Predict the 3D structure of the following.
Amino acid sequence: MFSEGDIVAGLDSPVARDALRLSLETSLTALAVMVVVGTPIAYMLGTRDFPGKSVVVTAFELPLVLPPAVAGLGLLFAFGRRGLLGGELSALGLEIPFTRLAVVLAMTFVASPLYVRQAQSAFAAVDDDLLAAARTLGAGETRTFLRVAVPVAAQGLGAGAALGWARALGEFGATIIFAGSLQGVTQTAPIAIYIGFDSDPDAAFAVAAVLIAASALVLLSVKLLVRGGARRFGPV
Amino acid sequence: MRAAAIIVLLAVLAAGCGSSSSDSGSSGAEGGTLNVFAASSLTEAFTELGPTFESQNPGWKVRLNFLGSDELAAQIEQGIDADVYAAASAKYPEQLQQEKLLGDTTDFATNTLVLITPKDNPAGIHSVQDLTKGAKLVVGDPAVPIGSYTETVLANLGIDPSSLDIVSKEDKVKGIATKVSLGEADAGFVYTSDANALGDSVNVIELPATAQATAVYPMGIVTASGNKEAAQRWIDLVMSSQGQDVLTSHGFGPAPSG
């Protein structure tokens, strides 16, 4: 139905290019937040037991099973102008809805559980003796985490990051509720596809083709990462 | 692994075919399901007319699908089971007619535009001209009728859209209504019927008559429909004085005469 030429022509439209650029930038930002904030949390959840741990884990995993529209409403009720933190944010001169930050927040909220879950099991699989040995040899908690746990769990972390990034790239429901849709500002690739479906099908199909390729690439890299990990550390 | 995947796929396909054939198979005289695809702005009015139709036509169930007119047209193009298509402008019905997917249409209602603000009106908007003072405005995407009507109104008012702080172009009018009534945006253009449905949660600012864009709503029977008689009875109901009263009570104007 659509040839390569159509896809190239579709990608030539400013709507398609703005949407893809925005999606790439915001999803990578969301990924960075996920990794920086999520990794220590996943390490703690994967290597420690503490009272109420299952409650904490449930809270972190909730966005994974929530309908994205509910996630969007939740974000509005928390960070919207009339939300719980709206007054405090306004005092700081911050109004989050309808901004690029809102897009990143929505992506981070729905995608980070995928990363944290994967990272948590990667850390849980790290041999306790290795961590104990590092501590015995005088490495502090931070050093043990950065120099021992993270390198050993790297494959799992990579796989989690890839899945989290793909989920962020595909995020739609929470974004359209929390961030709205404006070309170049908040109109991500999935939203551009949804709105452009009928008015500009060529661009919509072209953007969709790029997303399919990106998702396939991510899945493939996860498979290679997991297989590489299995080869290095034996069967998982 | 592959065998399992094929089995799952076949099961899904079988389930899909099963449900659609049971729908269209019930198109006999004794009743069935009438799929009415209607523009998002018709939500309240058609939801009220659904039970009326069902009580007048025993054995019939009305299934209402409310989305942006463009999305509904796209669904019909993709071959989704639809019997009646009611849109908020002539653009998409005409497109479907060219593709031989929709029969003749009847104009059944009109709608006008209003400006709404949240109840507490944080940006202090009292007229359309106040919009240029930096208020966060939500409009419809030009792909949906409310978006193109809004462009017409702004042009009639002599307001350059680039002088406005448009923070979002929504895919359907209900998205505009919700974002304004929640107070996340300072103002938005919606149909009079939507403002009507929002009731006290928003302030309504009427537009000058000279700037007004009148939306005309056409409705027609989908060519592929297996329930054409029932579909016609739905159109008759909407055109009857009872149907027109319901539309009027929700803020719509009467069907254009002629």
About this structure: Chain B is about 40% helix and 25% strand. Chain B has a mean pLDDT of 88. The beta strands of chain B are 32-39, 60-67, 84-86, 102-111, 113-118, 136-140, 165-170, 187-191, 202-206, 215-222.
